[in-house]
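Late entry, evening session. Most of the bench is empty. Finally got around to the prediction I had been postponing all week. Sequence below, unchanged from the version circulated by S.P.
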Amino acid sequence: MSSPEPGPSGLWHGTTILTVRKGGLVAVAGDGQVSIGQTIVKANARKVRRLGGGEVIGGFAGATADAFTLFERLEAKLEQYRGQLMRAAVELAKDWRTDRYLRRLEAMMAVADKQVSLVLSGTGDVLEPEDGLIGIGSGGAFALAAARALIDQPLDAEAIARRAMTIAAKICIYTNDQILIETL
């Protein structure tokens, strides 16, 4: 099992965010664990939020204050581009990559609306997965693998997300089973 890499601050940032798109529905799930170093300081944090008047769901991994800054910036871009998630995400990624202040932010985001699911990173990436599944954070690979194993089962997006997150919580010390799921 691999450990997450410490950021420039030297702190470990552990979390799990999973996005599942199936049957016309999208579910974004997040665990509740907050860690400082190797100490769990909170078990029920809310890392999944609705944006854009409720039409977009976002989840974050990384430094909490940095993620809130990015949520605010994405919200502003969604307003500026009238709810067009792809356009707002690309413009946010451009700013994130070129702005001196934003470049220092240590976070990743998974965002989704009814049409598209995206991963946003500080390196300027705006990635759309081919299979409608996204896993970010230190437990993201575990949840993503579980979701891929469950995707062909007769379950909806929310049920797959819940089961995959529960599996990840059992095998990854950097996530827990305090799961929050938002769906569109």
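Two things to note before I forget:
Residues 64-80 form the longest helix (17 residues).
The chain has a mean pLDDT of 88.
Will write this up properly tomorrow.
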